[in-house]
């Protein structure tokens, strides 16, 4: 279950309803997919061949098509990141720059864990959304954010896009952001 950490105050928000209503203030979509639908052999597998990626997309076909119908996504794929990913540290360093996109950034976590760091309002500042399998999150367009992995450094997620080029990152340098 996703949890929120407000970075300025160290306040934690837990529980599905609390998390969802906190995120709603910032128009961040939060939904759940049923992780029990995933075949057991794929639950902890972080290096996937094309067949296994397609298998995941097939398992969640109804959920994907439902999101696409509601929110206009045209294409989707699977992203895998783990210690086996070539240049993982380099990739993470690039991810960890605050940026915005012209379209929303939606991720459905299939396995592993990840964190979205999102800019809230002036008073709240940045908050972490710690994501677990089954969590579906969408960061709205033009909202400063970045994504990173948790300590175990592995994740599998479904990504959906409205346009092929919609996910270009526009840097958002923010001197007020404190990393640690
Ligand atoms: Fe992004």
Automatic annotation (TrEMBL):
Function per UniProt: Catalyzes 2 different reactions between oxygene and the acireductone 1,2-dihydroxy-3-keto-5-methylthiopentene (DHK-MTPene) depending upon the metal bound in the active site. Fe-containing acireductone dioxygenase (Fe-ARD) produces formate and 2-keto-4-methylthiobutyrate (KMTB), the alpha-ketoacid precursor of methionine in the methionine recycle pathway. Ni-containing acireductone dioxygenase (Ni-ARD) produces methylthiopropionate, carbon monoxide and formate, and does not lie on the methionine recycle pathway.
Binding-site list for Ni(2+): 99, 101, 105, 145
Name recorded for this polypeptide: Acireductone dioxygenase
HAMAP family according to UniProt: Salvage_MtnD
Bound cofactor: record note: Binds 1 nickel ion per monomer. Binds 1 Fe(2+) cation per monomer.
Organism domain of life: Bacteria
Residues the UniProt record annotates as site (Important to generate the dianion): 107
Quaternary structure annotation from Swiss-Prot or TrEMBL: Monomer.
Enzyme class: oxidoreductase
This protein's pathway: Amino-acid biosynthesis; L-methionine biosynthesis via salvage pathway; L-methionine from S-methyl-5-thio-alpha-D-ribose 1-phosphate: step 5/6
Gene coding for it: mtnD
Binding site for Fe(2+): 99, 101, 105, 145
Needed cofactors: Ni(2+); Fe(2+)
Reactions the enzyme catalyzes: 1,2-dihydroxy-5-(methylsulfanyl)pent-1-en-3-one + O2 = 4-methylsulfanyl-2-oxobutanoate + formate + 2 H(+); 1,2-dihydroxy-5-(methylsulfanyl)pent-1-en-3-one + O2 = 3-(methylsulfanyl)propanoate + CO + formate + 2 H(+)
Organism: Paenibacillus polygoni
EC number: 1.13.11.54, 1.13.11.53
């Amino acid at each position: 279950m996703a949890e929120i950490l407000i970075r300025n105050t160290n306040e934690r928000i837990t529980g599905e309803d609390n998390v969802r209503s906190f995120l709603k203030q910032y128009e961040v979509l939060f939904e759940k997919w049923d992780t029990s639908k995933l075949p057991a052999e794929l639950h902890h597998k972080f290096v996937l061949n094309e067949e296994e990626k397609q298998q995941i997309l097939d398992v969640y076909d109804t959920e994907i098509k439902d999101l696409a119908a509601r929110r206009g996504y045209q294409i989707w794929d699977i992203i895998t990141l783990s210690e086996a990913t070539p240049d993982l540290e380099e990739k993470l360093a690039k991810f960890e720059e605050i940026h915005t996109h012209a379209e929303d950034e939606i991720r459905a976590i299939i396995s592993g864990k990840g964190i979205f760091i999102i800019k809230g309002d002036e008073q709240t500042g940045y908050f972490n959304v710690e994501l677990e399998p089954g969590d579906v999150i969408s960061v709205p367009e033009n909202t400063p954010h970045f994504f990173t992995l948790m300590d175990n450094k592995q994740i599998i997620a479904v990504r959906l896009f409205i346009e092929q080029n919609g996910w270009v990152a526009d840097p958002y340098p923010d001197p007020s952001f404190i990393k640690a």
